[in-house]
Amino acid sequence: xKAVILAGGLGTRLSEETAVRPKPMIEIGAMPIIWHIMKxxxxxxxxxxxxCLGYKGYMLxxxxxxxxxxxxxxxxxxTKNEMEVHQTTVEPWRITLIDTGDETQTGGRLRRALPYVExxxxxxxxxxxxxxxxxxxxxxxxxxxxxxxxTVTAVQPPGRFGALEIDGSRVTGxxxxxAGDGGWINGGFFVLNPEVGRYLSDDSTVWENEPLEGLARDxxxxxxxxxxxxxxxxxxxxxRQLEELWESGxxxxxxxx
Length: 257
Description:
This protein is α/β, with parallel strands linked by helices. Helices cover about 25% and strands about 30% of the residues. The strands form five sheets. A seven-stranded mixed β-sheet has the order 7-4-1-8-13-10-14, sandwiched between helices. Strands 2-3 form a two-stranded antiparallel ribbon. The chain is globular, with a radius of gyration of 20 Å.
């Protein structure tokens, strides 16, 4: 099975970081967040990736083209213009990086990726800026059981506000930022069948609008309930929180050795 990852957005709310690099290349624990996402999938035997590039996409191409330099010992012979790799520890990944346009919307990027999953009965699909401890194997199995074109992972986001427990005019308790603030949202980890292409019109298609609405209307959108860890990286505060979890050795999304 392959995983398609969106990695082309501008990341305007993280402009302090994205002015110089694409959002998926922002580092958590000295490794790009897209690496963490790929490691999660790889822990569930998903080793083939299609990465949809846009803003500063060349940086992702250069990163993966030079991956040995980042993760292995090397000897460089300048006189012979040769490089020898020692003690390689690279992952068993096959990565296709496709240019999907700087202005293309999320559904348009997915549409451009479909030729690279042609022939597969299903594939994973996610964003390049969020981490979770989703059981990918269980998610895929759930999708196959549902026999729907698409499955979305439903999550409860970290709470933003404390909740008062009241009785009449008296406060009887206080809950510090309950998860989800009471609601479920799109967690960004999907499993899709290639037939999803008929819901994708052109580059201006926003995946979160007409396609998901159409799939729901046609009873072709299942939801997988995930009650574990999930956290987006939309702001510097989010980045710091994820960094703290990683540095503390308590990163819930680390499903690999």
